[in-house]
UniProtKB/TrEMBL annotation:
PANTHER family: INTEGRAL MEMBRANE TRANSPORT PROTEIN-RELATED (PTHR23526), MAJOR FACILITATOR SUPERFAMILY MFS_1 (PTHR23526:SF1). It comes from the Bacteria. InterPro entries: MFS, MFS_dom, MFS_trans_sf, Sugar_transport-like. This is Major facilitator superfamily (MFS) profile domain-containing protein. It comes from Thermovenabulum gondwanense. Gene3D superfamilies: MFS general substrate transporter like domains.
Amino acid sequence: MQNLQEQYNLKEKKVKNNFNALSYDSIFFNISTSFIDPGTIIPSFVSMLTSSPVLIGLTTTIRNCGWFLPQLLVARRAEGLPYKKPLVLIGAILYRFALLSIILSAFLAVKTPNLALILFFLFFTLMSFADGITGVPWIDLFAKSIPVPMRGRYYSKTQFLSGSLSFLTGFIIKGILNVKTIIFPYNYIIIFSLALLFALLSFFSFSRLIEDEKSKTNNAPSLAEYLKGIPLVFKSDKDFSRLILVNTLFRFFFLPLPFYITYARTNLGLPEDMVGIFVSFQMVGFIIAGLIFGRVNDIFGSKKVIKITGYLITLPPVLALLSNLLFLKHLPYIPLYIMTFMLIGATNSGIWVGIFNYLLKIAPEEKRPLYIGLINTLTAPTTFLPLLGGVIIENFSYIIMFLFAEIFLVCGLISSFSLRHIDGD
């Protein structure tokens, strides 16, 4: 009896340790990301080196492509690994090395901006793909380490704390960009260095994770056998097929994402330091949505979170266009445009909580890495949407670009109603 009690206490202690390790990993990583946000800070930095909308859009394409593309091959490898933590650590080390290299190469912008731009894209690509390596094993570790009843609490805690602290980062960014004595590129070097600091804290937190239970594994098949087996997943699991469709259409959210900042400068006449305000209010949306979605997920299920996200995701392009209309009529427009970034933050929260919770509930444990890799890799073509957005802006206008994205986002909302309410939801 005493041995059973000791085993129970050890298990509870391990669950608590892993809950905190993954919680603070996420919190610090999200704070780090707010200093190198692909929808605000990175496009703003690149726009100081080039005026090309295509190159500015390429930043979001690289970030998303690096996250999505490696995951199917990583999933194949991860399926055969009893322990997933070492794979996450490899990707995490590469990510932080690349971020350090971005900081060092930014110094070249003073005398050789073209070289600085080339090196930025090189190391930004490495950073993005390194993050993609960690995606599948990290989510698998999360599913293995955090019991289902604790996941709503996990989302509420991590999104509230990381969002609250990231809200403050927006004002820090605004303060740095507003100091006239700190000129480009040194202002962005300071911002990127803060990103590295919190990325290192994230790494140290994750390293505390205890993975002492082997995952259920399959013998890793050959690549050809692995790829041939993928169609069987779609034939046998209609829930997964519908989720892929919804997730793909939701990804049109990224088409205009890097251009809200340049649109604010070129069409709305807003100064560069407003990017800090946008980051802060994006975090406000993230915080509020995280608190709400965590509860909604626990009480009503992840399908409800996805449907609410479907409504939210259609609003940012509309608000951007309405802001321009108010600007042209000399009416107050800044509060409405700030609301655009709040909704971007809320949408990011909803996609993460809704899509991935639904996925974890429908995926068999032994096939979980495959499901995670598939949902991300099959939506990988959408990573080129920001590039398409840049082409549309160059050849047509911002208005056409926003309307084009809106059509697909509305289709995503409609398709979310096709998802089945699953057991455990």
